From TrEMBL, chain A:
InterPro entries (UniProt xref): AAA+_ATPase, ABC_carbohydrate_import_ATPase, ABC_transporter-like_ATP-bd, ABC_transporter-like_CS, P-loop_NTPase
Protein name: Sugar ABC transporter ATP-binding protein
Residues annotated as domain ABC transporter: 8-243, 258-500
SMART domains for the chain: AAA
Organism whose genome encodes this protein: Devosia ureilytica
Family: Belongs to the ABC transporter superfamily.
GO CC annotations on file: plasma membrane
Pfam families tied to this protein: ABC_tran
UniProtKB/TrEMBL annotation, chain C:
Principal subcellular localisation of the protein: membrane
Keyword 4Fe-4S: no
GO molecular function terms noted in the UniProt entry: transmembrane transporter activity
A Pfam short name: BPD_transp_2
Domain of life: Bacteria
Membrane topology category: Multi-pass membrane protein
Protein name: ABC transporter permease
Transmembrane parts of this sequence: 9-28, 48-66, 73-92, 98-120, 127-149, 155-185, 214-235, 247-266, 273-293, 299-318
Subcellular location: Cell membrane
CC per GO annotation: plasma membrane
UniProt keywords, alphabetically: Cell membrane, Membrane, Transmembrane, Transmembrane helix
Keyword Cell membrane listed: yes
CDD domains the UniProt entry points to: TM_PBP1_transp_AraH_like
Length: 505, 323, 332
């Protein structure tokens, strides 16, 4: 054992992609016999750090040490020889080969130059037993549940590496019992002296199994601490970068009379996606949605819009029971939806700005009442101006625009349909400051004009500023609805962390 | 006279001799026939003629369609061997890969006769091979044209088969041999019509344009009748009379060309006979009667048909064979 | 205004077409000579129009499919089926309009089937249409029982070989279809929706476009166009040749669409330019036939010319032109 006491250590790691600094002088130390949680929102730098620790990326600065000795990791195989094994969310083994073959792939026991199948299967049976699996090692891997495959992947990584095990969101597709079984294995490995890195979005799981936690935000190290002396609220606060103690900002001074009820979602939900929720939305109201990544906030937005259909619950629009099974239903009822992944689900990259603006309106008008070019230019020009879209020409492909301008185009697309209700999923993520301000200004303006909006955002200051109510999502469940003076970052953070600590829903 | 022509005559003679006395000799025999498939009209006609010939001779024909796959043919031959047939006819889909299964047949003492195509295998593995001579077909067509124009100058345009295919290469070579002696007959243009009617028509259209509207063309030679039928339409579209303004000679003798000959729109066709089985049965009859070993390569006749050979009757005789 | 008229003429496809025609003219000086004969226009240029029409018609249907990021491999086989249906029906004594309607219905049904596989069952287009590519020709052979079914029906023959105001009927039909389909996609929102679905189907669905209906429509149109082409080529040779009708023409149609500037990755498309693409291919074919090259060189010459055309319209080549344009604007 080296003097630092770390089995694996990263010192001052810098990683730059283009002009984006993904990791900025990050330190990370992993002790033998500990489970170390690595937390952070999307884009915080978790996966970049993991890829550097496993040799998939080379750092632009800083160094990696194994047992106190600097090492140069060119590829994952080399990391393996230093005792570092990784298991990813998607099991990357061979589903059509046997479990024994998967365990021994690349280093099969041989006899006279041939694979010694019997020895391999006996060995595999012994390994599986240690992980509490009584299954036939000659059976096909793909025939077993994801949980078993996950355990086989862990067994393989541990057998090959033996010192450090990195688990990248291993629980994402497991049910509660399977997660518990996985945790037993993790605890067992810890007792055997392995160092385990555990990446997850679920705080409950962090507190259930981890000893220490390292939190990254925007490529920077926030802190590494022992979990014993931390509450959930502390962790969420560090992740979101909000200092709850000093935050007194409250939401919209709601002196205005509440508009009439537009939408009433009653017991609305979808199996394996979002637990049934109740939400009433009034005209002239912004509902902010807070929650960590993977909390079910995007899923909620999608079932509201019919992108995924709800399989239970009732929706009333202006008091009338309505079924929204697909986006066209939603649009016909005056809904609009700006998705979180702008590039994959929002823009039509090769089409012009003009076409991107009018497409939803045209979709609403149908195939045969086409807007002619002049009408399209008029509409696109109007929104180009009012939304301050910076494009050399409305006929240029939207993919050439900056992210902020693309977002303004998508917002314009929905405004052109004269909507009554807009769902915005992370409308300000990854865009420049000017566009950011323009979008926040637009949200406020639309609210004042009487639209109903649901805005999902990780930017708590922002949500607090424009929301008249805030719902908090956690573990695919709506856990709190905050209004009045409860609309402040401190309460939100507590609600995200653990609603038992926060005010009742 | 080439050796091939001699063989052809010998085969023709053998056919003529056999068709009475020997026909009875193989009745009751069981003969397996592994056919390639039914990819063309000619192939379908070969199948129906083979069935006819077997019926006439009282042969119990076991038919197997290989659907263009050698493995099916090998399977079928093994099946025939297992059933203990008296002889096997094979129209081989490819040239190689026959040694093992033919050795099995030889060990079972079952004579094998190849139809229509040759193979790359030791000659002792099969009794004989019955096939047409594609070079001869081309030469018969060429010689007919030379005698037809009787010394006058004649510019011929040629519609070739698919580039690189053996009938295209051989029928071109044969025709050139056929006209080699006549300096007055020359091929002026040659293009591929892919053996199809529509390509034959398209290519002929282009030839007419580039030959002064067809005035410079004396005859068209097509490697198969289908292209000739297409060319006839192109000639008519150009305002000329096929068969008179431009002579039409082709190969295969499918039913439709006889309609054209009867109408005076085509002049001659050389038959690629679908009757490969007849000579094969005759060879078997002689072999079984007194152990006569047939020639290793039996060449079928390449008969020329013109307006004098009752084209309407020929059409009637052929139209139901499956062409 | 002048620029708006001239710009579409100055695109690489038309330049390539003119280039190929000029090469033909150099090889065969009478290439542009057109005469009046038996009440119809007669000449190599007319042959290009007439012979190019089937592939042009296929391309008119194919371009919409490719714009949705799909491909329709079955069109050649559908041609064979449509021709077989029309021919066997007139031979069986049905009136020509009934036979033509039945053939068109078969083509439409094939297209809708492809659309169903792609849009509803979500099968990859190349696989979904491969089914009919293989099975369709077999069905055509079953219909004709392996014969070339010849007919003498004057209406069917007129569709394949007749002429209207001196122009070959096939070309008239192709031009009419081109105008019709262009109007259909550009005067309605269908064209925009096709492009939207091709560029980003997920976004199109969230923007309220019924992409399933649209996909079924474009595949249906492709099948219908294939049937039209199939009837034409059957009429042309007065017979349905199930083995050879439309064989490999799906590849020519795809090539025509690509030469017409539509990316196989979907998105922007142009019906008229796809037709120009088909004419470029046919101009090459006719040029090879009149030039007197030995047929062994056909494929090599064709490949070289296509390579040349594709280079002209490659991103690299088109970058050179705008660079000059901006340089000029900078001087202003």
């Amino acid at each position: 054992m080296s003097d630092t006491g770390y089995a694996l250590e990263a010192r001052g790691i810098v990683k730059i992609f283009g002009n984006h600094v993904a990791l900025d002088a990050v330190d990370f130390g992993l002790r033998p016999g500990e489970v170390h949680a690595l937390l952070g929102e999307n884009g915080a730098g978790k996966s970049t750090l993991i890829k550097i620790l496993t040799g998939a990326y080379q750092p632009d600065g800083g160094m990696v040490l194994a047992d106190g000795e600097p090492v140069h990791l060119d590829n994952p195989q080399q990391a393996q020889t230093h005792g570092i094994g990784t298991v990813y969310q998607e099991v990357n083994l061979l589903p059509n080969r046997s479990i024994a073959e998967n365990l021994y792939l690349g280093h099969q026991p041989t006899r006279f130059g041939l694979v010694d199948r019997r020895r391999m299967e006996t060995g595999a049976r012994g390994i599986l037993k240690r992980y509490g699996l009584e299954i036939d090692p000659s059976s096909e891997l793909g025939a077993h549940s994801v949980a078993v495959q996950q355990i086989v992947a862990i067994a393989r990584a541990v057998e090959l590496s033996g010192k450090v095990l990195i688990l990248d969101e291993p629980t994402a597709s497991l049910d509660r019992n399977e997660v518990e079984r996985l945790f037993e294995i993790i605890r067992d490995l810890k007792a055997r002296g392995l160092a385990v890195v555990f990446i997850t979005h679920f705080l409950d799981q962090v507190f259930a199994v981890a000893d220490r936690v390292t939190i990254l935000r925007n490529g920077k190290l926030v802190d590494t601490r022992a979990l014993d002396d931390m509450t959930r609220t502390d962790v969420v606060r560090l992740m979101l970068g909000k200092d709850v103690a000093f935050s007194g900002a409250t939401g919209v001074e709601d002196a205005r009379p509440m508009g009439e009820v537009l939408l009433d979602f009653a017991n609305y939900g979808r199996k394996r996606s979002v637990h049934p929720f109740n939400l009433t939305i009034h005209k002239g109201e912004v509902i902010g949605v807070a929650g960590l990544l993977g909390s079910g906030r995007t899923e909620m937005a999608r079932i509201m819009f019919g992108a995924d259909s709800a399989d239970e619950g009732i929706l009333e629009i202006a008091g009338k029971k309505t079924s929204i099974a697909r986006p066209t239903d939603a649009i016909a009822n005056g809904f609009g939806f700006c998705p979180e992944d702008r590039k994959a689900e929002g823009i039509f990259g090769d089409l012009s700005v003009r076409e991107n603006i009018i497409i939803a309106l045209q979709g609403k008008l149908g195939w045969f009442s086409a807007l002619n070019r002049d009408e399209q230019m008029e509409i696109a020009g109007r929104f180009g101006e009012s939304m301050d879209i910076r494009a050399a020409s409305l006929d240029m492909p939207i993919k050439l625009l900056s992210g902020g301008n693309q977002q303004k185009v998508i917002l314009s697309r929905w405004l052109a349909t004269d909507p009554a209700f807009l769902i915005l999923d992370e409308p300000t993520r990854g865009i420049d400051v000017g566009a950011h301000a323009e979008i926040v200004r637009t949200i406020n303006r639309l609210r004042d004009e009487g639209l109903a909006l649901v805005v999902i955002s990780s930017e708590l200051d922002e949500v607090v500023a424009y929301s008249s109510r805030i719902v908090v999502m956690r573990d695919r469940e709506m856990v709190a609805e905050l209004s009045g003076e409860n609309i402040n970052p401190g309460v939100i953070v507590q609600a995200i962390a653990n609603h038992r600590e926060g005010p009742s829903a | 006279m080439s050796i091939i022509t001699k063989l052809a005559l010998a085969a023709g003679l053998a056919t003529a001799l056999s068709s009475g006395a020997l026909a009875q000799d193989i009745s009751g025999k069981v003969i397996g026939f592994s056919q390639i498939g039914s990819e063309s009209g000619w192939r379908a006609a070969e199948t129906s003629v083979t069935r006819q010939q077997a019926e006439e001779r009282g042969v119990d024909l076991k038919f197997a369609d290989a659907q263009q796959k050698q493995e099916n043919q090998i399977k079928a031959i093994r099946g025939f061997i297992a059933q203990g047939v008296d002889a096997i006819l094979v129209a081989p889909v490819v040239a190689t890969g026959w040694d093992d299964v033919l050795t099995e047949a030889k060990e079972a003492e079952i004579p094998v006769i190849l139809l229509d195509r040759g193979i790359d295998a030791p000659e002792d593995l099969y009794l004989t091979s019955v096939a047409s001579d594609q070079v001869l077909e081309g030469r018969v067509a060429g010689e007919w044209l030379v005698s037809e124009v009787a010394g006058e100058d004649c510019n011929v345009v040629e519609l070739q088969g698919t580039v690189g295919s053996s009938p295209a290469i051989n029928r071109k070579q044969g025709f050139e041999e056929g006209i080699a002696s006549a300096a007055n007959v020359t091929i002026t243009q040659s293009q591929t019509g892919d053996f199809t009617r529509s390509k034959g028509k398209e290519v002929m259209e282009a030839f007419l344009k580039s030959s002064n509207g067809g005035a410079d063309i004396c005859a068209v030679y097509a490697h198969n009748d289908d292209m000739a039928v297409g060319a006839i339409q192109a000639i008519k579209d150009a305002g000329l009379k096929p068969g008179e303004d431009i002579l039409v000679v082709s190969i295969d003798a499918v039913p439709d060309i006889f309609t054209a000959i009867a109408a005076g729109e085509a002049n001659a066709t050389v038959e690629l006979t679908p009757n490969m089985a007849g000579p094969a049965f005759d060879a078997l009859a002689a072999y079984w009667a007194d152990g006569t070993m047939p020639e290793k390569f039996i060449i079928t006749e390449s008969k020329l048909y013109t307006a004098e050979n009752d084209p309407a009757g020929e059409y009637e005789r052929r139209k139901d064979l499956g062409y | 205004m002048m620029r708006r008229i001239l710009t579409p003429l100055a695109n690489p496809q038309l330049i390539a077409l003119v280039g190929v025609l000029l090469v033909n003219w150099l090889l065969f000086p009478n290439f542009f000579r057109i005469t009046w004969q038996d009440g119809r226009l007669f000449g190599s240029l007319i042959d290009v129009l007439n012979r190019g029409a089937p592939v042009a018609i296929l391309a008119i249907g194919m371009v919409g499919v490719i714009a949705t990021k799909g491909v329709d491999l079955s069109v050649g086989a559908v041609m064979a089926m449509a021709g077989a249906v029309a021919a066997t029906m007139v031979v069986a004594g049905y009136p020509a309009p009934v036979a033509v309607a039945a053939a068109l219905a078969v083509g439409l049904a094939c297209g809708l089937w492809n659309g169903f596989l792609v849009a509803v069952l979500d099968i990859q287009p190349i696989v979904a249409t491969l089914v009919l590519m293989v099975a369709g020709r077999g069905i055509a052979q079953l219909i004709t029982e392996g014969f070339i079914v010849t007919f003498t029906d004057p209406v069917l023959i007129y569709i394949g070989t007749g002429s209207f105001l001196g122009v070959p009927m096939a070309a008239v039909i192709a031009i009419a279809l081109m105008l019709l389909v262009t109007l259909l996609v550009r005067k309605t929102a269908i064209g925009l929706f096709i492009e939207a679905v091709g560029v980003n189907r997920a976004a199109a669905s969230l923007a309220g476009i019924r992409s399933r209906m649209l996909l079924i429509l474009v595949y249906g149109l492709s099948g219908l166009c294939a049937a039209v082409a199939g009837i034409i080529i059957a009429g042309d040779i007065r017979g349905a040749d199930a083995n050879n009708a439309g064989l490999w023409l799906e590849l020519d149609a795809i090539l025509a669409v690509v030469i017409g500037g539509t990316s196989l990755l979907g998105g922007r498309f142009s019906v008229p330019l796809a037709v120009v693409g088909a004419l470029i291919i046919q101009a090459m074919n006719t040029g090879i036939l009149v030039s007197g090259f030995p047929p062994e060189f056909n494929l090599i010459v064709k490949a070289a010319l296509i390579f040349f055309v594709l280079v002209i319209q490659s991103p690299l080549a088109s970058r050179i032109v705008p660079v000059r344009a901006t340089a000029r604007e900078a001087h202003k």
